[in-house]
Structure prediction request, 319 residues.
Amino acid sequence: MLLLTRRETEIPSSEITPKETYEAFELNRRQLMKGLGAAGVAMALTRKARAELKIDDLVATRYTAPDRATTPEQMAKSYNNFYEFGEEKSDPAKNAHTLVTYPWNVKVEGLVAKPRTFEFGELFHLQPMQQRVYRFRCVEAWSMVIPWDGFPLSELIKLVEPLPKAKFVQFLSLENRKEEILPYGIPWPYSEGLRMDEAMNPLTLLTFGSYGETLANQQGAPVRVIVPWKYGFKSPKSIVKIKFVEHMPPTTWNELAPNEYGFYSNVNPQVDHPRWSQAHERLLNAYTLFPKVVPTLMFNGYGDQVASMYAGMNLRKDF
Ligand SMILES: Nc1nc2c(c(=O)[nH]1)N[C@H]1C(S)=C(S)[C@@H](COP(=O)(O)O)O[C@H]1N2
Ligand SMILES: [Mo]
Prediction:
């Protein structure tokens, strides 16, 4: 991991990735697209190919880490919330092997000029990969520091050309009642949403991997969204549909308990959850019996990049 600056700054790829590596990837990508076409690219990412894929070799741009140690990889992959696969933090790692991630399509629909269904391989090759080390804050007052691999969701959004009427984006996760269980009477499928400007923010990552490898099933393989300035539940896993809509879409937690989970759910140490404080968090970035407790940062520390989107809003009301 490269730690060049204290804060997340975009570092031109030329400064970090050897030029040859990036050019090789670009060449590879273009040859793949030209020689094989979309179907071929899709074929090139069969389940086996994907399992062997080192996303790290494809990373063209790297964001530097925050002032915190990175969570050990095994910790990030064994302490998860993925209610489709159980209620306990250890359940997803045990149960998510039943998730079938190939073939996988993501349907992009609604208020767009160019609706389109992407086969996973097409989606994967849309843009050069970036690695972004983000703070990740769960609403349950614990947090991790995770290197995610993907590219800004905005790149996909630009491609489908949203209509002026599109004001929100809804994400729907895989619905597979046969293999999965949803506790607390959570309705299928898991739904999340962002306002259009939030979805277009360069920090919002369409995510295919972590720690330089393809996502583990329990992390939401093969593709999820990561929104680092919001509580973790706003980062939907294993998505199959992206829908552009005019009105604020229904979202799983907001529907379930609107007084506890707002639509925006920006990380905010000043607005407590009705049942606990959000002022601090347990920092899960080292193997220790008593994790460090640190103050939670407004917008999870991403205020410079996101606060302007909420200027003039009452963040107690629109929590
Ligand atoms: N489909 C789906 N996405 C989901 C969840 C879920 O239960 N189902 N849990 C959310 C919650 S509460 C958190 S904290 C993060 C956890 O992501 P991680 O396991 O990669 O840390 O995923 C979010 N995305
Ligand atoms: Mo969470």
